């Protein structure tokens, strides 16, 4: 029995729904554009002017009028009227028979018919000779006003994570401040009598507390503010008092604990939630690893209580906590259950325990010849995906092994997930 508490068992999809129902986007704030990398844009931003804002040359050469001054059998001649450098703002009109020397990116004179690259022109004094063959080519070397972006076009929609490409567009649009959602303030408490701080030599029966470092790194990747990270012994009163202190002093938007979620004598997180007057939404999940996982609201603050093993903490961070962070950061309309899930072909067989639960396994995804392929990670190999090995209709996860070339669902994580989101 789980610390005499009511058992609330959910599937992963039900857990996502419970998280989504409780969490709301944080307040909005104005930030200088250079500081907005990774933040979630709160409002759609539209182009205040076209891009390019003027019709320009795409090569160094000569801007030509439609009609040459002299048209011979193979050569056309123009009078060189002047020069247009990049940055020149003077408005000019090109007349029949005229040419202007022009630089790449410079504004074209009005009525320009085409630009001819410098290397295929011949200058002699104020005269310019161009072959008729060059004048017949389709390539005009002109970039029209508004070719890339029309005035009023949406540049960045709301609920978009701002990457370098978005910031470049917005800088070109003249934006100096952006309205974004506030960064989540997160507190971490790692519980366990066996835990000691990094840098100390563990005695037999002790372990270095690494979940704090792991979670700090993952939270930094997700543009969160870690307001406190502590290690606590398996003592109910001590854990409760430390969490009370965190709530009062640090005012976190989200709390993550590790350890203390199983059915054992020293697994105290169910009791901790009860002592804090919390409302548990679930305390058991139909997944492996992570069966003994708890999500509760302590007042208006969500608390995710994860098991202690770091491999499970990392998997569950992506599967449960990251969707919650996305809600807080303003991604309120994203589908938590399917976001990041893609189909992939196994390149190696995977053995499973027949637990009847969804199995999560660290994986490596590669893309080759248009196919997404996946395999389990090897020892000490960093993952870039999580395999979702679903149960069959009879409630068992396969027959002990999923064979090579079988299609499975994978959740992309890290840079792979970010690149997919920005597409």
What does this entry look like structurally?
- The chain is α/β, with parallel strands linked by helices and 423 residues long.
- It is 20% helix and 32% strand.
- Strands 5, 6, 7, 8, 9, 10 and 11 form a seven-stranded mixed beta sheet that branches. A six-stranded mixed beta sheet has the order 18-15-19-24-23-20, sandwiched between helices.
- Helix 1 crosses helix 7, helix 4 packs parallel to helix 7 and helix 5 crosses helix 6.
Using brief descriptors, characterize the structure shown.
31 strands, 6-stranded mixed β-sheet, elongated, alpha/beta, 7-stranded mixed β-sheet
| Low-pLDDT segments | 393-398
Mean pLDDT: 90
**Gyration radius from CA atoms, angstroms:** 31 Å
Shape type: elongated
Work out the oligomeric state of the chains in this entry. single chain
Summed up:
The protein is an alpha/beta fold. Helices cover 20% and strands 32% of the residues.
């Amino acid at each position: 029995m789980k610390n005499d508490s009511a058992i609330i068992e959910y599937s992963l999809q039900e857990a996502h729904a419970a998280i989504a129902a409780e969490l709301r986007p944080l307040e909005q704030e104005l930030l200088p554009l250079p500081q907005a990398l990774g933040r979630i844009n709160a409002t759609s931003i539209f182009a205040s002017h076209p891009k390019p804002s003027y019709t320009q040359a795409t090569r160094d050469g000569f801007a030509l009028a439609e009609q040459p001054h002299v048209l011979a059998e193979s050569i056309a001649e123009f009078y060189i009227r002047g020069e247009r450098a990049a940055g020149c703002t003077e408005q000019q009109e090109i007349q029949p028979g005229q040419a202007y020397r022009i630089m790449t990116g410079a504004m074209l004179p009005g009525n320009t018919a085409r630009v001819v690259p410098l290397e295929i022109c011949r200058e002699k004094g104020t005269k310019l000779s161009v072959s008729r063959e060059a004048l017949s080519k389709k390539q005009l070397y002109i970039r029209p006003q508004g070719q890339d972006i029309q005035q009023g076009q949406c540049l960045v929609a709301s609920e978009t994570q701002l990457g370098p490409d978005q910031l470049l567009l917005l800088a070109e649009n003249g934006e100096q401040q952006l309205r974004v959602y506030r960064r989540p303030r997160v507190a971490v408490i790692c519980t366990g009598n066996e835990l000691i701080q990094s840098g100390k030599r563990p005695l037999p029966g002790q372990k270095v507390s690494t979940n704090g470092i792991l979670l700090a790194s993952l939270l930094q990747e997700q543009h969160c503010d870690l307001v406190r990270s502590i290690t606590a012994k398996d003592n109910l009163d001590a854990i409760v008092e430390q969490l009370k202190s965190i709530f009062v002093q640090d005012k976190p938007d989200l709390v993550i604990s590790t350890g203390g979620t199983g059915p054992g004598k020293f697994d105290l997180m169910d009791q901790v939630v009860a002592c804090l007057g919390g409302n548990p939404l679930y305390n058991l999940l139909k997944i492996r690893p992570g069966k003994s996982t708890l999500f509760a609201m302590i007042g208006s603050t969500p608390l995710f209580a994860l098991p202690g093993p770091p491999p499970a903490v990392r998997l569950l961070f992506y599967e449960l906590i990251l969707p919650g962070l996305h809600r807080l950061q303003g991604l309120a309309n994203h589908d938590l259950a399917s976001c990041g899930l893609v189909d992939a072909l196994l390149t190696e067989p995977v053995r499973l325990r027949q637990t009847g639960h969804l199995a999560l396994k660290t994986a490596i995804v590669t893309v080759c010849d248009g196919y997404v392929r996946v395999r389990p990670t090897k020892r000490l190999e960093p993952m870039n995906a999580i395999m979702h090995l679903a149960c069959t209709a009879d409630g068992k996860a396969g027959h002990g092994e999923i064979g090579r070339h079988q299609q499975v669902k994978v959740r992309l994580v890290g840079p792979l997930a970010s690149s997919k989101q920005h597409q």
